[in-house]
Write a structure and sequence with these properties.
The complex is a heterodimer of chains A (177) and B (477).
Chain A lengths: L3 E7 L5 H7 L4 H6 L2 E5 L12 E7 L2 E3 H12 L1 E7 L1 H5 L11 H11 L15 E6 L9 E3 L6 H12 L15
Parallel strand pairs in A: 1-2, 1-3, 3-5, 5-7
Antiparallel strand pairs in A: 4-6
Chain B lengths: L4 E7 L7 E7 L5 E8 L5 H4 L8 H6 L6 H16 L5 H33 L10 H7 L1 H22 L8 E2 L2 E2 L5 H29 L3 H6 L6 E6 L11 E5 L5 E6 L8 E4 L8 E4 L9 E2 L2 H7 L6 H11 L12 H20 L19 E8 L2 E9 L5 E7 L1 H4 L1 H15 L7 H14 L3 H4 L8 E7 L4 E4 L5
Parallel strand pairs in B: 2-15, 6-11
Antiparallel strand pairs in B: 1-2, 1-15, 2-3, 4-5, 6-7, 7-8, 9-10, 12-13, 13-14, 15-16
Helix pairs in contact in B: 4-6, 4-11, 5-6, 6-7, 7-11, 10-11, 13-14
The chains are: A alpha/beta (177), B alpha+beta (477).
Amino acid sequence: MTRKRLATVWLDGCSGCHMSFLDMDERLIELADKVDLVYSPLVDAKDFPPDVDITLVEGAVSSEEDLHKIQLVRSRTRLLISLGDCAVTANVPAMRNPFPVQAVYDRAYCENATLMPGTPHDAIPRLLPYARPVHEVVHVDVFVPGCPPSADVIYYMLIELLEGRMPQLSAKTRFGA
Amino acid sequence: MAEPSKIVIDPVTRIEGHSKITLHLDENGRVADAHFHVTQFRGFEKFCEGRPFSEMPSLMARICGICPVSHLIASAKACDALLAVKIPPTAEKLRRIIGIAQVVQSHALSLFHLSSPDLLMGMDADPAESHLFGVYARNPDLARDGIALRKFGQLIIERLGGKRIHPAWVVPGGVSEPLRVEDRDAILKTVPEALAIALRSLVWLKSTTERFCEEIEVFGNFSSLFMGMVKGDGGLTFYDGDLHFVDENGQTVAGNLDPARYFEYLGEKVEPWSYLKSAYYLPKGYPDGIYRVGPLARLNVCTHCGTPLADKALAEFRALQKRAVLSSFYYHQARLVEILYCVERIEQLLNDPEILSEHVRAVANINCLEGVGVAEAPRGTLFHHYKVNDQGLIKWVNLIIATGQNNLAMNRSILQVAQYYVRGNKLTRGMLNRVEAVIRAYDPCLSCSTHALGQMALSVQLIAPDGAVIDEVGRPR
C-alpha cells in the first residue's frame, strides 16, 4: 500500500475530536506507518498542502476564517470527513444562532469586561451570522457523528478508508455518542 | 523591499487553539512590540441563557475537549452553590480523583505530544520532523511513555465517568454513580507504571533542560505575581481552597482570598486585536497587575505538595532559581512535578475506605439564585459564575479561564523572546519556532479561553513602522 496523505483540521469545536484521535494511543504509531500526517494542529505545517488523500474536519463553520479555510481544504482533498457532531450538525456552536452576533460579542467583551470594553476587531476574523455544519458549505464524503466519536470508531473509519472501503458507521456511533 | 515593520507567524502550531503572532518592528528593524492574537470566539456566556442549570456541567464541558473535566467540576461546584448543598464526602473525593486524572493526561499532552519535539530535537529542528512521530523515530521510548502517561489519565476518566472525553458523571450535588470495586482495583494496578514513567521523564527533562540555558534566560523570565489555590495549610490542591498571590520573591501579596469573590480582585481588559481578554490583579491595576497561573504559579504559591515523591521533586524545582521560579521555560518541569503529585494522590484517595460509599449525590432544588464554582484546571484557576431565575433557568454567565489569566504574561514573553532572537526583516525557522515555543510553555488552551476559539495553530506577521506586512509565516489562505 502506498503511503496516504492525511490531514486534520480544527474549525469551531472544542478539540475533543482531536483528543479522541489521540486516544488511539499506541495505534497512532501503527497509523504512522501507513500515512503521513501532512497538516494538523499536531504538526508544524503552516499551509494546507495540495494532494491530500483524507482530511478529518472537526467543528462547525463559524467565522470568515473557517469559511475560507474549509473551501481551500476541500479543493485540495480527495475525501473530506466530517468528524464529530459539530462538523456534522453544527451542534454546540450553533447554539449561538438564535442570538444576533453582536449580542454574543457584547456579553463577553462589553458586559463581562472591566477595562476597555468593546468588540475586538483588529487582525482577527469576524463571526459569520450563523454557525453551520460543514456540508452546508462544501461537499462532504463521510459523516462520523459523536461527541466525540470514540477512538475505536476513528481507527475503524481510517483503516476502512485506507483499504479502499467505505466505512459502515451507523451501528457504531451516533449523535451524542 | 521596504523597511520592515511587522512579522506575522500564522498559524502558531502545536498549541491548543487558533492564534497568530504579530511582531512590530521599529525603524532599525528591532522588535518594538508583540501581539498574541487569539482568533476564535464561540459565545458560551451568551447562548447558555435560558438553559436549565442542570444542563450546565455537560454543556460547559464542550468548551474544551482537553480539559472538559475541569469545566465539569467548576460548573458542578457553581450548581452546588445554586442548590445550597454540601456534597457527600465520597462524591468530593471522586471529583478530586477525576480532576487530577485529567491533570495527568493534559500535562502529558502538553509536554510529550506538543513540546517534546522542541526539547528533544532542539528549536532549530526541521519542521517536517517536529511532531510526536518524529520523536518516536528518534526516541521511541520517550514517545511511548508520553502516550502511556496520557492514556493512564484518560482510562481513569473513562472508568469513573463512562467515557474518555465529555463524560457526564460529575453532576450538581455530587457524581451520578458510585465507584465500583473492580474499577478501583483496576486503576490501582496502573499506578506503579505511571509513577515510574513520571520519574524517568523527570530525569530526562532535567538533563535536556541543561541544553537550553539561553532560552531559559529569555523565555518569559521576568517578575510578575503568581496566583493559585491552596489548602488551609498552604498545600497544593486542585479542587478546593483559598486563592493566594505571591510576588517574584515568593512573598505573599494577598492570601486567604475567597474564590467566590474573584470580581473584587481580578479585572479583565479587552484587547482590540484578540478574542482573548487579559486578566490582571485589580489592586495593582493594568498592566502592573500582571500575574501568572498554572503549574509554575501553583508551585511558586504552595508551601508543599503533600506526597513524598512530589515533595522531593518540588524541593529540586525550588532550587532552580533564587526566590520564586520566574522563567516560564520551567512550566515544563512544573508539569512533571504536578503529574507525580497527581498519581500519588490518586493512589491515596483510592485507598481511602470511604471511596466505595454509595452516598455520592445530594439532591435539592434551587435555593440560591447565584453561584460561583472555582477549581484548578491543568492550566490554572478556572471560574464559573451563574445567575438563575426561580425555576433554575440560566440568566447570566461569566467565565474566567486560565489562559486569559496568562495572556499578559504570554504577550510579554513573546516580546522578550522576539527581542532577543528576531533581527531584521527575514524570518528563520529557529527564531520563529522559539517565539512559538514560549507560547507552548504556557500550554494555552485557546478553546477554553475564549469560550470560543478553534484552530490549533499560530501565525506570525512581521510589520513595518508604516503598517505594511513584510513577512509572514502563515495560515492557509
